[in-house]
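Recap slide: DUF222 domain-containing protein, sequence and predicted structure.
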Amino acid sequence: MDRGTHTTATALIDAVRERTHAARVAEADAFVAVGDWAAAHTSDAVVGDPITTLGEWHDAAYAEALAGDHFLELGGPGAPVVAEFCISEIAAARACSFDAARRLVGDAIELRYRLPRVHARIAAGEVDVWRGRRIAQATRLLTFDGAGFVDRHVAYVAGKATGAEVDRLVAEAAARFDPETTEAERHAADGDRYLSIELGEVGYADPLTGTLRGTVNVHGSLDLADALDLERSIAHVARQLGELGCDPNIDIRRSMALGEIARRCDGVTTLEYDAGDGTTETEPRRAQRTRREVVLFVHLDHAAITGTLNGIGPGIDTCTGMTGIDLARLDTPGAPRGAVTVEQVQSWCGSPDTRVTVKPIIDLNHHDAVNGYTPPDRIADHVRARWPRCVFPYCTRSSRTADLDHCHPYDPQGPPGQTSTRNLFPLCRRHHRMKTHREMATGKRWTYRPTDPTRGEPPHAVIWTSPLGLRYLVDPDGTRPWPPEPGREPDAT
C-alpha cells in the first residue's frame, strides 16, 4: 500500500470513528431527553409506596386518572410513577409502537432515579445506551438499596461488563438486600416452565425458493412428568398416522400429531352413574373429540374473482411474475395475518370434524351507514378489513380487538348516517381512551381526520395532530411524519 492509498484509508477509518462517536453522543442525548420528558410527567407517589399500590392518588393525580389517564409503575421501588398518555408522544416522536416506547421510558426512569452513576456515564457519552438499558432491565425487581449496590459496583465498568457479569451482580444484590424473596424464588421449581407458540412469527416465504410455508415455531420448557406424557402421546399419534399412510417422515408426522392431540382428548375420562341400589358406579369413557372450528376472513381482489387484472388480462403479480390469484389473505382472530395457499386452506377445511364459517365478501369501495350509535357487524367488519391495525401513529395493535371510534363525534340530535364506514376508525383501547379523555395542560388533545384528496392529500388515510401541533399521516401501509398545518408551527413547549 503506497503512502497516498494509506492516507486515504486512514481518512476513511477516521470518518467511521468520528461518525460512530457522533451517533453514540446523539443517541445518549435523545435517551436523556426521553428521561427529561418522563420526569416532567411523574407523580409525587413512587413505586412501592402503599398509596401507589392501592391506587389512592393524591388529589391532582386522582382527578387526572378519572379523566382517562393512569400512572404506570415503569421503574423499580423508589422510582416515581409516570403518566401513561405521555408515552404516546415519545412513541410518535421515535416512530415506534407504544409498547416499545413504554420499555424505553421505563429504562430511562430506572436509570435516572435508581442507577444515577450509570445514567451519568450514559449522559456523558461514555457508555452506550443499549448497555445502560441492559443493566436497567436487570435491576428492575431489586429493592432500592439493591439497585444502589449494583449502581456503585457496575458504574465504572458499565461500558464493558457482559450480560452474565451484570446478572451475577444483580443476583448477589437480591440475595443481600431481599433474602426472603430470593429463597422463595429458589424453591419455585416451576418458575422456568413455559410454552411459546410464535403466532406472530409465521413462516411465509422461504428466502431461497420463495415458497409459502404457513408454519410457526413452538418451543418451551416443561416439567419432566408432563414432558414424558406429551412425548408418549405424540409418539402414539405419530405411529397411528404412519399406519394410516401419512407422510413417511417421522418429524412431519410428529408435528401433525401435536395438532391432532390439540383437537382431541386422547385419554379416558370417568363417568359416574347411580347403580340403583343407593351406590355409585364408575365407568371409563373416552372423551369426545373436539371439533375444529375455522372462521375465515378471506380477502379476494378483483383479479382473484375474475382471473384478470382490471378486466384486461391475467392478474400478474409484478413482484413474482406469476398470476398470484391462487392465494388467500387471511385475517382471522387469534391467528397471524398473511398469505397462504388455497391448498392449505383446503387442508384445514377438508376434515369432516371441521366446522367452517365463511364471512361474506366485502366490497371496500362501497360505503355503508346506519342511524344508530352502535355499528352492525357488516359495518364493523368493513372498517376492520379496510384498517388492519389501530389507526394511531405507529400503533401495531390488531383492529380485530380494537374499539371503533367515531372520527367526528356522534351527535344524537345530529343528521342520520353518522355511524358509517367513512366515519368509523379502529382505535385500540389505550389510544381510544387517550384521544377521548386526555387533555394536556394547554387544553389540547390528540385529534385526527380523514385526508382530503382535493387538498393534495393522499386518499384512504388519516392525519393525526398531537397536542404539540406535530402531525402524522397514517394509511394501511403505516405511519409517516406530515408537515404542519399551513401557517402554524409546532409548539415549542
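The chain has four domains: 3-189, 222-286, 292-358, 374-482.
Residues 264 and 371 are 46 Å apart (CA to CA).
(End of recap.)
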